[in-house]
């Protein structure tokens, strides 16, 4: 006989903080006594007063207590099946644009709900997901020495200009295939409490942020990533170093700052993009294990793949993979050294 495992107990204060953040990783439902409605933790409805809120581990528990499901966030909807249908439809039609209305018909949802559900669970919009799939196919073909024009069309791009806009290469496909040949990359290095920091930026945005023991070692990491590019030192980019360090000191975000024109160019596979997006949701001063992160992404069997994505992160600090630790709590697997990982976590906890 199969024994049903009860859901874990809910810590009301933790759940309340997740509700305030509209955290999609929250594993509970909340009900509002004054409205008689229960919702998912990331529901976009007006935030209730704390005194009116009750928390439930399951839909059945909330329903049994006399609450009805919210019509906005639809907490009784089985999201997994709908998400699988949406993903499969996008993956079958990489050769053409797939509109939200079309995905809505596939999943039996409104276009708005499709967009919200997909971005909440995948970390990217349906359009970004399709572009990332194309970009991954294009990158693989280019790295394997494929013809640039053939690779562009085989990846589902209708033209070379579309590939340039949507492939997330940070440069043209031809230049990417040649290790950045002909590309102009501005860079600077600067000391920090965590070693030397190097940032690299093309005309399309920030393409590299790494740590090293010395200025020479940090610069070498950029040259290894773009061996054929022309690198020029640009002292004005030191502001990016300052803002990256601010993300550790105060939890600020270079990418989301409204004063910044630079774009963070996260180049990777669809899965890597999802992992990096999930990492950026970990609050400053906290950690997650690789398995927790996999579960939060809805893919509990992907622990090793999550660890691999962390290891290939190209943007230190701003994608804070130092906040991901082993199940035992040990600080393993940091691309820029375990001692540096320990220093970063200690700095964030002070």
Could you please describe the fold and organization of this structure?
- By secondary structure, the protein is α/β, with parallel strands linked by helices.
- The chain folds into four domains: 12-69, DNA Methylphosphotriester Repair Domain (3-Layer(aba) Sandwich), CATH 3.40.10.10; 78-178, Orthogonal Bundle (Arc Repressor Mutant, subunit A); 184-249, Methylated DNA-protein cysteine methyltransferase domain (Double Stranded RNA Binding Domain, 2-Layer Sandwich), CATH 3.30.160.70; 270-349, Orthogonal Bundle (Arc Repressor Mutant, subunit A), CATH 1.10.10.
- The protein is 42% helix and 13% strand.
- It is built from 15 helices and ten strands.
- The strands form three sheets. Strands 3-1-2-4 form a four-stranded mixed sheet.
- Strand 1 and strand 2 form a beta hairpin.
- Helix 3 (79-92) packs across helix 4 and helix 6 (126-143) runs antiparallel to helix 7 (148-154).
- The longest helix is centred in the middle third of the chain and has 18 residues, at 126-143.
- Residues 1-5, 142-179 and 253-262 have low confidence and may be disordered.
Query: How would you state the average pLDDT, rounded?
Result: 77
**Count of individual helical segments:** 15
Number of strands: 10
SS-based class: alpha/beta
Q: In terms of per-residue confidence, which ranges show pLDDT below 50 for 5 or more consecutive residues?
A: 1-5, 142-179, 253-262
| Beta-strand share of residues | 5-15%
Keywords:
350 residues; alpha/beta; DNA Methylphosphotriester Repair Domain; Arc Repressor Mutant, subunit A; 4-stranded mixed β-sheet; disordered N terminus
């Amino acid at each position: 006989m199969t024994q049903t495992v009860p859901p874990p107990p809910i810590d009301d204060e933790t759940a309340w903080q997740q509700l305030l953040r509209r955290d999609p990783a929250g594993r509970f439902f909340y009900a509002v006594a004054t409205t008689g409605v229960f919702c998912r933790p990331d529901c976009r409805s007006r935030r209730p007063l704390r005194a009116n809120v009750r928390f439930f581990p399951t839909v059945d528990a909330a329903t049994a207590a006399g609450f009805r499901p919210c019509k906005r966030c639809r907490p009784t909807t089985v999201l997994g099946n709908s998400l699988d249908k949406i993903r499969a439809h996008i993956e079958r039609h990489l050769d053409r644009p797939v509109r939200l209305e079309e995905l809505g018909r596939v999943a039996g949802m409104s276009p708005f709900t499709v967009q919200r559900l997909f971005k909440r669970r995948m970390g990217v919009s349906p359009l970004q997901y399709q572009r990332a799939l194309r970009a991954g196919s294009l990158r693989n073909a280019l790295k394997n020495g494929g013809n640039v024009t053939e690779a562009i069309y085989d990846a589902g791009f209708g033209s070379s200009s579309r590939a340039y806009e949507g492939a997330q290469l940070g440069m043209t496909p031809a230049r990417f295939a040649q290790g950045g040949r002909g590309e102009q990359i501005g860079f600077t290095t600067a000391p920090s409490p965590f070693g030397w920091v190097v940032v690299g930026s093309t005309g399309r945005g920030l393409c590299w942020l790494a740590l090293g023991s010395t200025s020479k070692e940090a610069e070498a990491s950029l040259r290894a990533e773009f061996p054929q590019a022309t690198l020029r030192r640009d002292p004005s980019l030191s502001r990016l170093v300052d803002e990256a360090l601010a993300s550790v000191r105060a939890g600020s975000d270079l990418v989301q700052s409204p004063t910044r024109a630079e774009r963070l160019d996260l180049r990777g596979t669809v899965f890597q993009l999802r992992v990096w997006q999930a990492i950026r949701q970990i609050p400053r001063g906290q950690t997650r294990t690789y398995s927790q992160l996999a579960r939060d992404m809805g893919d509990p069997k992907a622990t090793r793949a999550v660890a691999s994505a962390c290891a290939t992160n190209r943007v230190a600090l701003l994608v804070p993979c130092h906040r991901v630790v082993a199940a035992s709590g040990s600080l393993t697997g940091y691309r820029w050294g375990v001692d540096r990982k320990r220093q970063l976590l200690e700095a964030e906890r002070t």
